[in-house]
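During the reporting period the student researcher (J.K.) took over the structure-prediction task from the postdoctoral fellow and processed the backlog of single-chain submissions. One of the processed entries is reproduced below for the supervisory committee.
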Amino acid sequence: MVRSLAIEMEIQTKMKKFKFNGLLVITALVYLFLFLPVIVVILMSFHPDPIVSFPIPRFTLKWYKIFWEDYALIQSLKNSFVLGICSAVVSGIIGTLAAIGFVRSQFKGKQIFGAIILSPMILSGIITGIALLSFINYLNFPKSFPLQVVGHALLTFPYVFLVVQTQLYGLDRSIEEASMNLGANELETFFYITLPNILPSVIAGMLFGFTISIDEFVATQCWVTPSTETMPIKIFSMLRYEVTPKVNVLGTIIVLVTITLPLVAEKLIARKINVKLSREKKNK
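J.K. obtained the following structure tokens:
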């Protein structure tokens, strides 16, 4: 009887191990399916020939050199980065102020207000793009770079709002009250107490916003002009007429930016959480 129980336990252990390994294999296949096209784009940017083929005969930086000599591509890259930085700053300011007002205030319709703030994340980009374009046309304002900044800030500030809101809910309100009890007004308390504590979250939210702005294509089509083309718009227009390895170079740059910045944002948030946990342990 003891031997049969041992055999049964061994079978159950092997079954659990098999299920675990099967889950790992399925997960690996899913990630491979998602990231294989990205890996191919990166590899093809180093291909020496205009018409790509496998296996790659040798790796070269020729197309990167040609890319940096193409004024139109460099201009689209510059437009994307300037637009991303401007929209990240605007969304950082608006998102932070909205989060502070939302967390620190109690008013009727608070949940509805929160849903309205997050609506750009839920609505399709084309709806947001057409809505803002219609509003601008109604005011007789022309398409311009500031319009793109406003549009991208509208799309990205909910991410700042969410990240900062989470940080504010975890912030000990007593340190703000202690600051005001010692004679500081609300503005001084914000700049010397609140802002330093939530700054990593603000930066993380802005990095997320910058990443969203760099990748944005659908809504940007409604606001773009020939002189303010961004990288996604430029790639789309190039693919309509020709496919050259320069497209792979541009795609590689976008991939590297969109992967690196969220990782940096995640590190900032994790660092803030670790510091908070270590302080709580010391206080105990």
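The committee noted the following: The CA atoms of residues 72 and 79 lie 10 Å apart.
J.K. will present the remaining backlog at the next meeting.
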